[in-house]
Write a structure and sequence with these properties.
The termini are far apart. The chain is α/β, with parallel strands linked by helices and 710 residues long. The protein contains 27 helices and ten strands. Helices cover 61% and strands 8% of the residues. Strands 3-2-1-4-5-10-9-6-7-8 form a ten-stranded mixed β-sheet, with helices on both faces.
């Protein structure tokens, strides 16, 4: 038996892959002890093992492939995780920052190239476009600390797509000038291809994705592969449209944004694969490009490298500082914007490679670019790590405490056809900051076959447990043995101190239920928790609109803020438009209530004081509509007779449509009213959930006092 000797650079693909995985594993762990961002470790590891370092690994086609995928993955995650509501609200700020972070480096870089480095105008312009572009190389830091949906990060991401697009457009124009091909036909071609690409991405991709998710609802891995196929096909089509692949995959991420909930198992899979494998490969690949030896070989190379690094860093800082001054951001927000946008990698490499091949840029610029990439990535990593930690602490220093009770969600399960959708709803409306598990409940009626029923229910939940685990959500199975289902649910509500009950709707009522009352009637009569009664026919992320009907006076219920937050989370997680229909007075309170909760959402309001006509709604409903009706218990302030009929009418006329009926939590409503700090004249005169007799007595007393005053 002979032992094969190991020669450098490594050629064995198994050994190469094992070494890279070892670096990905150990670099963050080792550097964390030294308080150095893990991203720096991966870049430096690439410098050390690369062809310009110890020559352990070559930057061959496999490294290039994984690095390219990693870069595109960063842009895909940026598009998927960006807060679209925040982006729309701050789009003008994103445009301002995008133009600032493009124009400052472009103008100053052109002047430095022309007057200091003595390049011609075309070369100076191309050089400046390298400063103007940047790569979100430190995005994983903000993502890890949960800052992706903050305004500062949203502006940085929005500005990135603007400046990179303009920088790459400059590159295309310079290339066409070099070939004497810049004419009106080229400009028209760019406009037409870009327009076609936009229609394909923003009109075609969402419809195709919704169809795929609906027709292959249980195929989690198929959904993951489908997203990757769409992303990389979009990158390829972008190239055909004379755009860079990073633009295409970012726009694909935005198109898929509302169809992939943040807390879903699908998003968890996408993030896991990217952050574990592809993105670290990209960072190592960037390090392998750097050649430190050039600093000791040519003084001109040092001059060019220093000039490029200083201009790139200074202008990116100036753009962030200017944005801070104009919009009044804190120094921490400025630093995180600067940190995210200072790193140079992808577009810089594209520009310098093309420019070098066309003999527009010399070797000094090529080597200077590689050094600039290393230095700016190091600065960006330190700046982002420091600012992100401080911003995360600032956000956590004043958490909103709307309730002292921990959020606990109970989901009774019995029907195999509905259990997955009910658990999916529970995952989407669960507060992301809550550490509490979701409680699936099985109620076993006390018979001789109790053991068999328990075994059946546990088997029923196996797939759902895997579904929740993939979304990083813990399920704690609960079993109750009782004489009937309603009493078992009520007992679990009290024993587990449940705040929200999510239950499936069963339209079929037995004769006994018609006489003595249904399970729902019994639960409503004997509980105070928020209850969501659901009939869900398709995956929640495939709806295009949530139509929320709110009765008058509902803002006086104790559970007002709670159900409003549940609906905000559902709208936010699924990216679904929220349309609220209610009275003028209720809309005023809802608008103020929305400002108290997180996440912030964008909703449209329709003023309507009348009872919703269920039959008419059903006739006009589209396949993408999810109807939500806020109801109330009989003893509640907002109760009206017609509310009792909504579940049954909805079940009758919404045979092919989904709906949810919400019964708000009952109890003392003074907490909410004091939080809103409304004027007393605008409040209903009762601050507590009173019995019907007490309400009538107070009403008569108030009327008498008014008559006496008159």
């Amino acid at each position: 038996m002979t032992i094969q000797s190991i020669t450098l650079p490594l050629q064995n693909p198994v050994l190469i892959f094992a070494l890279v995985l070892l670096i990905i594993l150990l670099s963050p762990i080792v550097l964390r002890k030294l308080r150095i961002p893990g991203i720096i470790g991966l870049i430096l590891a690439g410098v050390i093992i690369g062809p310009n370092g110890l020559n352990i690994l070559l930057r061959d086609s496999s490294i290039v492939l994984f690095s390219t995928v990693g870069l595109l993955y960063i842009m895909l995650l940026s598009g998927l995780e960006i807060d679209m509501v925040q982006f729309r609200r701050s789009r003008h700020r994103s445009i301002f920052f995008g133009m600032a972070t493009f124009l400052l480096p472009q103008v100053l870089g052109t002047m430095i190239g022309y007057y200091y480095l003595h390049f011609n105008l075309s070369t100076s312009t191309l050089l400046a476009s390298m400063f103007a572009s940047h790569t979100l190389i430190t995005y994983p830091i903000a993502n890890k600390l949960g800052l992706v949906q903050t305004e500062a990060v949203t502006i940085a991401i929005g500005g990135t797509i603007i400046t990179n697009t303009l920088s790459l457009l400059i590159l295309s124009i310079i290339v066409q000038l070099k070939h004497n091909a810049l004419d009106i036909s080229f400009i028209m071609q760019i406009i037409l291809l870009a327009g076609f690409f936009g229609i394909l991405i923003f009109w075609g991709v969402p419809r195709l994705t919704r169809w795929f998710f609906n027709n292959f609802a249980g195929e989690g891995y198929a959904h993951f592969l489908f997203v990757l196929v769409i992303a990389f096909l979009s990158a390829s089509i972008a190239q055909l449209a004379k755009l860079e692949p990073i633009i295409g995959v970012f726009l694909a991420g935005i198109a898929l944004n509302r169809l992939i909930p943040t807390n879903s198992s699908l998003m968890n899979r996408i993030e896991f694969v990217g952050n574990t494998l592809f993105i670290p490969f990209f960072l190592i690949g960037v390090g392998m490009l750097v050649d430190l030896k050039v600093l000791f070989q040519d003084s001109e190379a040092i001059k060019v490298a220093v000039a490029m690094t200083v201009v790139a860093t200074a202008t990116k800082w100036l753009a962030a500082f200017l944005t801070q001054l104009v919009y009044g951001y804190s120094s921490t927000q400025r630093r995180i914007i600067f940190g995210l946008t200072n790193g140079q990698a992808a577009a810089t490499l594209a520009a310098v490679t093309i420019g070098y091949n066309l003999r527009l840029l010399n070797e000094n610029v090529l080597n200077g670019s590689l050094l600039m990439i290393l230095v700016t990535c190091l600065i960006a990593s330190f700046a982002t790590e420091s600012a992100a930690r401080k911003l995360a602490l600032e956000l956590d220093s004043n958490p909103e405490q709307l309730t002292e009770k921990p959020e606990r969600i109970l989901v009774p399960v019995s029907n195999p056809e509905t259990v997955e959708k009910l658990i999916e709803l529970a995952i989407l409306v669960k507060d992301p900051m809550s550490a509490e598990p979701i409680y699936p409940l099985t109620v076993i009626q006390d018979t001789n076959s109790t053991d068999q029923q328990i075994a059946y229910c546990r088997k029923l939940m196996q797939h759902t447990i895997k579904q929740a685990a993939a979304a990083d959500t813990v399920l704690q199975l609960v079993t109750r043995i009782d004489l009937n289902i309603a009493s078992g649910i009520i007992r679990a509500l009290n024993e587990l101190q449940i705040t929200t009950l999510i239950i499936g709707w069963n339209a079929k009522m037995t004769t006994q239920e018609k006489i003595f009352g249904s399970v729902l009637d019994t639960i409503l009569h004997n509980s105070n928790q928020t209850i969501m009664v659901c009939k869900l026919l398709q995956q929640l992320n495939t709806y295009s609109r949530i139509r929320l009907f709110v009765p008058p006076l509902s803002h006086h219920e104790k559970g007002f803020i709670q159900w409003l937050k549940l609906m905000s989370l559902l709208s936010k997680q699924t990216g679904t438009r929220l349309e609220i229909i209610s009275s003028k007075e209720s809309i005023r309170h809802i608008v103020r209530g929305i400002t108290l909760i997180k996440p912030q959402i964008a909703a449209t309001f329709i003023e309507d004081n009348d009872m919703p006509d269920i039959k008419t709604l059903a006739g006009r409903a589209g396949s993408g509509d999810l109807f939500v009706f806020v109801s109330s218990r009989r003893t509640a302030i907002s109760y009206q007779d017609y509310l009792d009929d909504i579940p049954y009418l909805a079940s009758k006329y919404f045979e092919n449509h989904s709906f949810i009926v919400i019964y708000p939590e009952q109890g003392d409503s003074s907490t909410y009213e004091s939080t809103l700090q409304l004027d007393e004249d605008s409040l209903f005169p009762y601050h507590k959930s009173l019995s019907i007799i007490e309400k009538l007595q107070n009403l008569v007393s108030n009327m008498s006092k008014r008559n006496i005053k008159q």
